[in-house]
Amino acid sequence: MNSIGSIGHKALTWVQDIGLVVIAISTVIAMGVEVLAMYDARTVTLADLLLLFIYLEVLAMVAIYLDSGKLPVRMPLYIAIVALARYMILDMKALDTWRMVGVAGAALLIALAILVIRFGHTRFPYGKADGG
Questions:
Q1: How far apart are CA 131 and CA 117, in angstroms?
Q2: How many domains does the chain have?
Q3: Is the pLDDT of residue 130 over 60?
Q4: If both were cysteines, with which of 45, 48, 61, 130 could 75 make a disulfide (CB 3.0 to 4.6 Å apart)?
Q5: How many other CB atoms are there within 10 angstroms of residue 57's CB atom?
């Protein structure tokens, strides 16, 4: 039974690694498409830069996971904050007051969650038995 578990673990690890490589390749392709769009438009907007930043964060998250085998919970939260900021910048004129307050409140809640997670990691660090 132990060998079946070992084979299953290796198979899942391979599938996971292939999925991460697909995500990385797709992100690089999306970055290339965005750079070409900026080149064709002959302009770079803040929304373009924030989108490229999101792509870089995704690549960094994939790299961290491939290096350590662990996904920091804060990385997707950082990406979410940048995505919310990009949404507000792109649709600033179309957003009504309550929607803008809602998006800003969501960004604030995510930032507070990051602070709580950071505090928890420094105040209550993982031990070796906890997988840290």
A1: 17
A2: 2
A3: no
A4: 61
A5: 19
Residues 4 and 55 in one domain: yes
Virtual CA dihedral for 78, 79, 82, 86, nearest 10 degrees?
-170
Is pLDDT of 131 > 60?
Answer: no
Q: Is the full-model pTM beyond 0.90?
A: no
Structure tokens at 31: 């970055």
Fill in the DSSP letter of residue 125: P
Q: What one-letter code names the amino acid at 100?
A: M
47 and 5 together in one domain = yes
pLDDT, tens digit, 9 for 90 and up, residues 22-42: 999 999 999 999 999 999 999
DSSP state of 20: H
Residue 85 sits in which domain range? Answer: 72-132
Q: Please give the pLDDT value at position 122.
A: 87
With residue 18 as reference, give the H or E element that holds it: helix 2-41
End-to-end C-alpha distance for the chain, whole angstroms: 27
